[in-house]
Amino acid sequence: MNKEIQTIIDTIVEGNKRVIAKAITMVESEKDGYLNLLDQLHFYTGKSLRVGITGPPGAGKSTFTNHLIKLIRARRKTVGVIAVDPSSPFSGGAILGDRIRMKDVLLDDGVFIRSMAARGNLGGLARQSMDAAEILEAAGSDIIIFETVGVGQIELDIMSAVDTIVLMTVPDAGDVIQTMKAGIMEIGDIFVVNKSDLAGADRMRDDIDYMLNLRSKKDGWRPKVRLSEAIRGIGIEVVLDDIFNHISFLEDNNLLIEKRKQRLKNKIIGLINYRITEKYWDEEKERYLNSYLNNEIKNKSPYKFVDELFKDA
Amino acid sequence: MNKEIQTIIDTIVEGNKRVIAKAITMVESEKDGYLNLLDQLHFYTGKSLRVGITGPPGAGKSTFTNHLIKLIRARRKTVGVIAVDPSSPFSGGAILGDRIRMKDVLLDDGVFIRSMAARGNLGGLARQSMDAAEILEAAGSDIIIFETVGVGQIELDIMSAVDTIVLMTVPDAGDVIQTMKAGIMEIGDIFVVNKSDLAGADRMRDDIDYMLNLRSKKDGWRPKVRLSEAIRGIGIEVVLDDIFNHISFLEDNNLLIEKRKQRLKNKIIGLINYRITEKYWDEEKERYLNSYLNNEIKNKSPYKFVDELFKDA
């Protein structure tokens, strides 16, 4: 192995924030040698708990996460945060007040916060977040929190790769309930109705609870539904207990190891699919496609074109 | 060609709503013969204008779209709507009042509305929406509107496949501005601040306008920023004019044909990549992967495993 890589790895494992940040940038930009780095880091990974926190913009995810981090730290565990949310204060995309409120955790040595942005490179964002998490794992984060916004494909990809999913919403979010009905209910392990001081919070909690009674329970875990008022730090400790209880539940039922194996399998399938498509597309193939687009598209449908391509092969 | 398929195609081209709906279901569920159907329909496509309307839940996209449809109909053009938005009234996921308000357009023969839902099959949703659009094109829709929510990968995939993108937002959506800053600004051709009766609407329009001055203009089109109050039908006609003006702009600059060629190219690349990965994964490959996961994962990283796989090949 490359000596330079070994030095980087040693420094990451020691928890050097500057080097961790650089390593994540390396992975994010797919800089030469990043696969080599991940390859070596692999042997330091596999111990962190992964928690996903997702919900609509403005639900208060970052404020909630900020308090959650402090409570985790109070239990003497280290935290890594990966914010895949352009509107998150953790991404620098928020009003100054938010950032000041978060100063404590930003300065804490046991906390590493990283924002991952789309930057026109959306396809790889889910994969890059996972890779960044491996770096944080190697750096010793006991718990890694993924903060995502909304219910798009990237968010679902990320959520499918965590151990516990916290779904946040706010009262009066009529559309949120609709969205939840339409699929997102399936993935939550813990539901949090934040801004519980607003009218309709109890009602919303009851509605979610009712819907959960109708939902098919895949793994036997009955999701929790909690109220919180993140801005005042209320209702967060119980969610942290829920998180640990859910992890214990997974462990007791041999599901944690299964989940992680599946996660790894999906990751490898992704790596392989990427490689085989990359290998397929050479100049000749692209020229052939362009020639079809320029000359034959009127008499031959794209479906037939693709069909013939695979008949020849 | 299969005689049954020919009958289906003839009936779609005649605009039979029941058969159109069935054909979309066929495509959505990837039922046997759907590629054959799309293959034959291809020769009836290529004429519709495609408009994307996207924005956060609750921005009023469906109410806006409802009025837009009526205005398009008043100009004697037919409309197809594909709602890829679980919270849309068009998806049946809304309060009764919304659906009653939309009764006119739902009963109009020149309007076809279809909702596409994730239903746990998220990977293919963008592709399926495109396929559904081809059916609507063959059925003679002059304009096809894609309604999507949020800024996830699927939404961006869909938006990258339309001719004109309308980005909707509402005043006081502080987070929306952040989200917009973080990438979504790049894709909008027309920006609409809906609920313009709310405080801060003018300010928000000016903010967006200011940000657009800073944005790099890829194709030379200066995006429009408009105020609307969709619930009262205010400010919608001017957006429709913007849409047609944008299309004319694309035509005048030879960009429409380029856009469509690129769209088709991406579609074919997607079809091919799907086929090569499908071809790759047989029982033996999966067994080999499982064996690695069960036996070797501790001494060999996934990256090395994949590397070796491609060295052998």
Note down, in words, how this protein is organized:
Two copies of one chain form a homodimer. Chain A is of the alpha/beta class and 313 residues long. Chain A has two domains: 46-259, P-loop containing nucleotide triphosphate hydrolases (Rossmann fold, 3-Layer(aba) Sandwich); 281-312. The first copy, chain A, is 53% helix and 12% strand. Chain A is built from 14 helices and seven strands. In chain A, strands 3-2-4-1-5-6-7 form a seven-stranded parallel beta sheet, with helices on both faces. In chain A, helix 1 crosses helix 3 (34-41), helix 2 packs antiparallel against helix 7 (125-138) and helix 7 runs parallel beside helix 8 (153-159). The longest helix of chain A is centred in the last third of the chain and has 26 residues, at 255-280. The first copy, chain A, is globular. Residues 92-96 of chain A have low confidence and may be disordered. Chains A and B meet through helix 3, helix 8, helix 9, helix 12 and helix 13 of A and helix 3, helix 8, helix 9, helix 12 and helix 13 of B.
